[in-house]
């Protein structure tokens, strides 16, 4: 019957390989100056290490982190690990959807104005299809490009109108905008002269942009009424 022998090759000071056998009596003895870690210590270290990892953060902390990121930054953060991908769809992350000139847009060169942000319809559609049912508040802050705001309002209003149809809604648009309960819009076209306090105060809104805002508000009003009726029934 053969006996297993603990042995191995080791390099000496002259870089020559020498074969060394280890006796069974020396197996349990550690070399002087070495520290042997117990199993309990390793388990405690593993537990602490799990909580220190970014992928294992609690949901309420991930929600606060994602709420401070832009839409683009949230998307890239969701690609890091499964935990952060799941945090991308947490409710508090989309409690307020900020829409500015460059939101979901791409830069396009204009011969007269230079590079201008233009709304990317494919990005907008993908965004609404992914998180449109999670948005609880809309915050519009137009500055220069009113056309981007108009197109954003038109698409989300259309999606909400599709959900309100009696004949049914396309499957991919079901629930889009159904949780929106707040709307904030800042009118940007202030034409008043600040250096002349006695001048007539004029505030421009833009005809098509105002019509799109009115359409969106009607959709929100109809949605709130239908929600109240469903609760009463």
UniProtKB/TrEMBL annotation:
Domain F-box, chain residue ranges per copy: 51-97
PROSITE patterns: FBOX
Disordered, as annotated region: 23-48
Database matches in Pfam families: F-box-like
Source taxon at top rank: Eukaryota
Signal peptide: none
UniProt xrefs under InterPro entries: F-box-like_dom_sf, F-box_dom
Protein's name according to its UniProt entry: F-box domain-containing protein
Gene source species: Anopheles atroparvus (European mosquito)
């Amino acid at each position: 019957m053969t006996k297993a022998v603990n042995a191995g090759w080791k390099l000496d000071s002259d870089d020559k390989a020498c074969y060394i056998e280890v006796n069974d009596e020396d197996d349990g003895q550690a070399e002087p100056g070495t520290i042997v870690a117990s199993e309990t210590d390793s388990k405690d270290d593993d537990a602490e290490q799990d909580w220190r990892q970014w992928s294992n953060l609690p949901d309420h902390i991930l929600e606060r982190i994602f709420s401070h990121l832009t839409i683009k930054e949230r998307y890239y953060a969701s690609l890091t690990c499964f935990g952060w991908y799941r945090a991308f769809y947490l409710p508090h992350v989309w409690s307020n959807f900020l829409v500015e000139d460059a939101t979901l847009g791409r830069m396009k060169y204009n011969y007269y104005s230079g590079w201008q942000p233009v709304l990317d319809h494919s990005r907008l559609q993908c965004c609404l299809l992914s998180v449109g049912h999670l948005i609880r508040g809309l915050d519009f802050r137009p500055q220069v490009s009113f056309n981007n705001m108009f197109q954003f309002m038109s698409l989300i209003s259309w999606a909400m109108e599709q959900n309100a149809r009696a004949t049914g809604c396309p499957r991919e648009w079901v629930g889009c905008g159904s949780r929106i309960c707040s709307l904030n819009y800042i009118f940007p076209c202030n034409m008043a002269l600040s250096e002349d306090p006695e001048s007539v105060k004029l505030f421009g809104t833009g005809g098509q942009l105002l019509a799109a805002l009115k359409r969106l508000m009607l959709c929100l009003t109809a949605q709130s009424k239908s929600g109240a009726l469903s609760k009463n029934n």
